[in-house]
Amino acid sequence: MWREKKLFCNADFFHASAYHFMDIATKLFTPIFVMSRVTGWAAHVMEQRADNRIIRPSADYTGPELRKVAPIEERSAA
User: Fold this and answer.
1) Which residues contact 16 (CB under 8 A, 6 or more apart)?
2) Contacts for 7 with CB less than 8 Å, ≥ 6 apart
3) Are 33 and 18 in contact (CB under 8 A)?
4) What residue spans define the domains of the chain?
């Protein structure tokens, strides 16, 4: 996906792989994705209606800078 569209895949990409290996029918993937989001969507709608305005989230990452990662060969199994 990165090579073709310069986009990172989201969690649904990995969920779809898991569903496939669990033999869940492909036509059920989208309904499952939607069910997992409905409560969040409903909460957003309720918040927006309570304030009578659309919420435009803004977030800036404030965590640590990039860290060095040890090569796999040097990592312990524990």
Assistant:
1) 29
2) 1
3) no
4) 2-54
Nearest by Cα to 44 from 34, 35, 52, 55: 55
Tokens of 57: 């989230």
Q: Which token pair is 43?
A: 């909460």
Cα separation of 19 and 26, whole Å?
8
Q: Calculate Rg over the CA atoms of the chain.
A: 19
Q: What is the dihedral of CA 75, 77, 16, 55, to 10 degrees?
A: -60
State pLDDT tens for residues 38-76. Answer: 999 999 889 888 988 877 777 788 888 888 889 998 888
